[in-house]
Structure formats: C-alpha cells, structure tokens
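Project channel, design review

CF: Before we commit to the Pseudoduganella rivuli constructs, I'd like one complete example in the thread so the newer folks can see what an input/output pair looks like. Taking Aldehyde dehydrogenase.
RD: sounds good, go ahead.
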Amino acid sequence: MNDAPPSQALHAAAGEADPHRMRAVFDVQQATALRWRDSTAAERIARIVKLRDAMLAHRTAFHTAFAQDYRKPEAEVEVSEFLPVMDEIHQAIGSLRRWMKPKRVWPTKTMLGTRAHVQYQPRGRVLVIAPWNYPLSLCFGPLVSALAAGNTVIIKPSEMTPAVSALMGRIIADIFPAHEVALFEGSLPTSQALLDLPFDHIFFTGSPAVGKVVMAAAARHLASVTLELGGKSPVIVDASANVQMAAETLMWGKFLNNGQTCVAPDTAYVHASVKQAFVDACRSVLQQRYGAGAAAQKACGDLTRVVNRRHTQRVAHLLNDAVERGAKVLAGGDIDEAQCYIAPTLLERVPAGAAILSEEIFGPVLPIVEYTDLDQVIHDINSQPKPLALYLWSTDRRAIRRVLSHTSSGGACVNHCVAHFAHGNLPFGGVNNSGIGNAHGEYGFKAFSHERAVLRGSWLHLVKLFFPPYTPTRNKLIRMTVDLLRLPF
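CF: and here is what came back for Aldehyde dehydrogenase:
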C-alpha cells in the first residue's frame, strides 16, 4: 500500500485516468475550496508565482516537448505559449488586489437608505479542459485565472500532445498537492468521467460540437460554464486597405501554429480592385518566410506540423475537395500525410458547394473570395454561425462602421488580426456558436468568480412603507412611488 499522504498518492494516475482516483481528488478538494473562500490576495499570488517559476524552470523541456509533439519551433513556443501565460501571470500579480476588492454600488431611488456592494467569491471546485493546439497556453492560462479567483482546479489536457501534457502533469504534481490542483491525462473516457462530477464551474476550450456535450453535462449539475469555441473567422480586405500590411499580418495570423488556431483567418474576402495585388503580396511573404520552392518550404524549421495524421487527412480532404470542384491553387498545395505536412496554401475560385467554405479549416489553407459588393459579404458572413473573430482591413471609416455594426463575432480586429487574443484588458470569448463567457485578465478572474450581491440596511428603513396592511393611504403611496419611476432623470 502507498504510504504517501492521500493528496500526493492521488497524483499517481498514469495513462487513462482511474475514475475512482479522479473522484477521490474531487472529494478532497472540497475542504480546500471551502477554506479558500476567504483566501487573501497574497496567498493566491504565491500560488501563481509558484506556477510561473516552475514554467520558467522547465522552459527548455517545453521546447523539446513541443518539438516532439508536432515540431513547433522554439520561437513559436515562446510567442504563442509562454508569452500569453506570462502576461496573464504578470497582470494577475499586479492587479489581483484591485480585482478582489468589493465594488461599492450606489442605491437606486427605491433603495435609498441602504448600502450595497458586489463581493467576488471563488466558484469553488473548477474543471479546465484544454485543447491540443496551444496546450500550454490554453491550459495554464485559465489555471492562472482560476487560482487568482481562489478556486481549486482539476485540469484535463489533450491526449494529442502527450509530451507537453506529461510535462505539465509533472509540474503540477511537483508544486501543488492534489487537494489544491490536479492534472489527469487521458482521452475521451477520462473527459467523460470528469464531466460526470458536480463541479462548480467548467472552463472548456475546443470545438462547438464538443462544447455542446460539455454544456449538456454541466446542465445536469447546474454548473456554470465558460466555453471558448471556434468557427470560421472571416477576413475582409476592402479597396482602401493597405494591401502590403494586410498580407504581411494575415500570413502571420493564418500560418502561426500552421493554421491550428481558433482565431485564425478562415476565409478572406478581397475586393476585386486589390485582389491581384493582395495575392502577389501574400505569395511574396510566404516565400520570404518559409522558402521559395516546395522543397524549401517542406524543409523549413519555422513551420509547425499538423498535430497528427488524422488531422492532416482531414485538412487534405478539404483542400482536395475544393480543387476537385474547380478551385485554383495560388500557392502551396503540397501534402505529405506521413510527415503530417501541408504547405501554406492559398486558394481562389472555390465553388459554393465546397466543404472548405462551410467547415472550420483549422489548418494551413486560406480560401480567397473576390467581391465587389460589401453588403453581399456581410450577408454571407451573417448566413454562417457567429464566428470567434472577424478581421477587417480598411481605411474607410464608413465601411468600418458598417461591418462592425452589421455583423456579430466574439471579437474583431480592424487592420490587425489575432492580436486581440493577447490584449489582457479586452474580454476574449465567443458568441453563441463560437462560445459563452469571456477570459483573460480581469474577465478571466470574473469567469471563475461568483459576483455576490450584498445589501446592508440602515436606520432609514423605507421598506416599512410597503408593509401590510394595505390601507387606502398606503396603496396611494405605493402607486405614487411606482409613478415616480416614469419620470426622466
């Protein structure tokens, strides 16, 4: 029998996690969650600092793990994995005391004589289910917010990036006892077993299809959820756009992590008057960054691979289907399924029935759709489920207002792309099909907090005016009070 304390022994799960072990960890976190309700900012910051220091201590090991899982370059590990988490940590450490401070609210006319404030309480025991495309950032980022809010946490990383997930598991086990934070590796059975537990909050990042499953599971326990999902994030490049800047930035946002990004540009609508200039600029950028020919691009060490063969086949099917239906390849198009390689690819003349125009691509292929009528583009965008992001390249103020006011998306960038994800003072999240709730910075803190309304009475107890018995005089007073609320401020 293992003589280690229960909180340590329960970390020993290997492979597909044992449901009994997960239940035991969930149970032992209850006492901690209750105790942490009145935890101080200093205590929470100390836990976040432990995570930060452990991340940095294993920096080189993370570089190796990412290279092993899907050949992600060291620079991209730093920019897209370490940087977002370190920014979350930096902001939490500097702002947590302000975030935690109760927010006083002024009384309304009918509440004169009372005092009130909003108290931020931890939700309790929370579950973070993270995806494979940014396994460190999308696992430890929500963890920072959950710890800042004072919650205990169970983490389920993706089984598709086993080296990174195993390293994160070792770090969590080293710096946190299981009754505070625990990480369980595994695939679908592990996720299902965790979703059967009555967590107080679930933070899920992944596809809309799986998001519906998570939301249904949460509904069984009336648990709150934050769902960071996806969708087809459109780009509009209008006639007034700075074409060169648009090409340089979009080729970065699209092919970062080889297109495996929830906010990656998915379809580019480009005005006919600048379309050829845009295509030429994009081709030039791709050659400068990844190599001038097919062989050079395939050998390029700056291009992340598709995560596995199954996903390579999925993206290849979308590409091949479009080409077979008449789409023209403007750049790239090379596929090596055995090497999980698809070249950075640009398409044009994609027919309406092609699957690539309706399914989220999540890979290194960008369809370019020529347009002349902005209203038609807006109509096409609104005919799809609401996306996680929308990008507009324009210097025309009226066009910018038109697009932003007549479309809906989780977030939007004007003359930029993807960068809103990294802006810690902006809420990051989707709308309807692309997600529920927000994350990052104070929004992440609030996602893992219950905003409790607290009201205090005083000697001026005006509510007595509404007590029975309802005499004619009292009825008249009540009616007068209601009628007063019709008056303007």
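RD: helpful, thanks. The chain has two domains: 19-230+440-451, 234-408.
CF: Residues 1-14 have pLDDT under 50 and may be disordered.
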